[in-house]
């Protein structure tokens, strides 16, 4: 009985409170509320009270404690913080142990509570340039904050950014996917178009079109593929594993809503499968109990032709799904380099254009905007600052590092600059 007494007391208190909420307004004003006693609810050994005294109300209830100060003395300003705030100089807040949100004559001392790691990573949000103004939505999402969906038996993972994480990015979504050596991304298809860039390693991609024609190709770091919506495709990491970026032409895309071959078989009656595939029901006795998604595999044949087995419809001969972008030389200019892929050279990706941009330390991209599309950026390495302007009088400056996603809405003007003595390497679509 002793063990359930605290529970009964909590239920009684909850019941009294519920009666108070449900009573008519006039009656509620006069309804006596039982203030719990000093005996704390909970397990044996609990102490204290859930409520304070009514004597704490009003003036003089809590005299000022001169020893309780919000001032902070153990801080150091970084180069640029005392300069005119409209200069918008880069502030290296990671160079001091206790950074403060001060820029020129603006800001003040922050005594906490605070998350100093985020503040150091985002100096232009913590201590914004004086030119930043107005109401402006977030234009940055770090993939490191995205949920990591894990494959089977350490075969890999995937994490995504869509409008749930970055509401401004309505036209595009991204997925960072890793496949361990020989692991598969099972046969699947999407309602959105898929454009991909290989970060590292090598991957074998396979696909089939609506005519039953098939294709396989091996891609390396820097290469690209494109699969139109509805085209079933599969991916397998080669000996060194691989990581790649997937970009979809819909901000509402979700990796969790992919059409998977394993789910198709699991959700279709076995008698129907047997009739459709002209085989015996016993052929489906060992179907997976759940979707495979990302799973371990055996080494792929070293000779691509040994895997590229075609059916009666033959192979895909026109509009190939892959492009060896790694073999394209960039256009080198003072301050960096750029190379572009769009339907001019990769026509099957009819609604995708991308630039691989390298900006050297101290350099920048000039102010620019796009007239008919958002700009979606993935930062591969380095550090960058982007100031985004939106009519009539709003702007924000954001700080980016490798693994971050940035988005500028259609016609929003942006200027990108290398930050912190480093250049940056980014894929811009």
Explain what the structure shows:
With 429 residues, this protein is mainly β. The chain has helices at residues 5-22, 25-30, 116-121, 123-126, 261-266, 270-277, 304-307, and strands at 102-103, 106-107, 140-142, 149-150, 156-161, 173-179, 184-189, 194-208, 214-220, 224-227, 233-248, 259-260, 294-295, 322-323, 331-333, 336-341, 354-359, 364-368, 375-390, 394-401, 404-408, 413-418, 424-428. Strands 4, 5, 6, 7, 8, 9, 10, 11, 12, 13 and 14 form an 11-stranded antiparallel sheet that branches. Strand 15 and strand 16 (336-341) form a beta hairpin. The longest helix has 18 residues, at 5-22.
| Whole-number mean pLDDT | 89
Number of strands: 23
Number of helices: 7
Helix fraction bin: 10-25%
Please write the string of helix (H) and strand (E) elements: HHEEHHEEEEEEEEEEHHEHEEEEEEEEEE
Approximately how much beta-strand content do the residues carry? 25-35%
**Principal-axes shape call:** globular
Largest sheet: 11 strands, antiparallel
Give the termini separation. 67 Å
Oligomer: single chain
What gyration radius follows from the Cα positions, in whole Å?
A: 29 Å
Structural class: mainly beta
Low-confidence sequence ranges: 1-23
